[in-house]
UniProtKB/TrEMBL annotation:
GO terms for biological process: antibiotic biosynthetic process. Pfam families: 2OG-FeII_Oxy, DIOX_N. The keyword Metal-binding applies. Belongs to the iron/ascorbate-dependent oxidoreductase family. Keywords: Antibiotic biosynthesis, Iron, Metal-binding, Oxidoreductase. It comes from Gordonia alkanivorans CGMCC 6845. GO terms for molecular function: metal ion binding; oxidoreductase activity. It comes from the Bacteria. This is 2-oxobutyrate oxidase. Pathway: Antibiotic biosynthesis. Residues 165-265 form the Fe2OG dioxygenase domain.
Amino acid sequence: MLPILDLDDAETDPTTFRAALREAAHDHGFFYLTGHGVPGESLTEVMRLARDFFALPDEAKNEISQLQSPQFRGYSRLGGELTNGKVDWREQIDIGPERAVIPGAEGYWRLQGPNLWPSSPAGFRAAFEEWGTALSEVGLRLLRHWSVSLGAPESFFDAAFAELPATLIKVVRYPGTADSAQGVGAHKDSGVLTLLLVEPGSEGLEVETAAGSWVEVPPVEGAFIVNIGELLEVATGGYLRATRHRVRAPRPGTDRVSIPFFLNPALDEVIPIIDLPPELATASRGVETDPDNPIFSTYGENAWKSRTRAHPDVAELHHGIIPSQPVSAY
Ligand SMILES: O=C(O)CCC(=O)C(=O)O
Ligand SMILES: [Fe+2]
């Protein structure tokens, strides 16, 4: 069982909370968060909207097909995504910051642009815009506590997120299947941290707690599952761990709905590196190097790598590139 941290405790006893936060992220890279202040009704409401969207006929869902979006936004159908070069068995909507396209954009600036919002169910856009704002606040609070717990000033990461943070929300459904084990293949998240909402009762998330050893992480009602992304691993010289995880495809006749929120800095921000106090620095494992998965310290480069690999159809159609796929052992 992963640790459960209560963000309310940070108000009464920040020192104990911060130590627990640091240890959870160092030991596991994953934990449950309660006391986050996002009302239970909002959690229920975004789940309901997700369910209602996925229940629409394919034709309605494809009105916002990601193939229409050079910025990798909108709906990608079942089988439309790859992880480790293999097909993920999930359908999803990708929602990023709502901004104007940059004319003549090059490189990762091609990720900036508008979302594709479904016309049904009613209230979808407003609810998910509010969701993004609320979860950014939770994520930034956690980052400030981490900074202090690692010997840095509270505001250490603030500047990287102050303007144009490139957050990403995914609204995801994994239908049950007997044909594939891969809901989403093993990966590390490419940003800073992830707050994951999972429908109560859904199964299938597995976390690699030690090399080759996978542990099931069931949802805890009302809690977010929090995990560290590659950039926080980089920022802490590997002291905090971006843990590999995957989702097993559900059994036939069942499904899984989840809503991950990825907190990321602005596309052109280079994540600042914390100068760890000596007692922590000696416990640091260093940043994992994988020739198949280079970690770039500029967030936009990391995001471009992961978005083009995950959605090669969009990359080829809109950008004329065929991304190299990792040949992975996972
Ligand atoms: O659906 C989940 O529970 C996890 C999804 C995930 O790991 C991801 O999209 O990065
Ligand atoms: Fe993930």
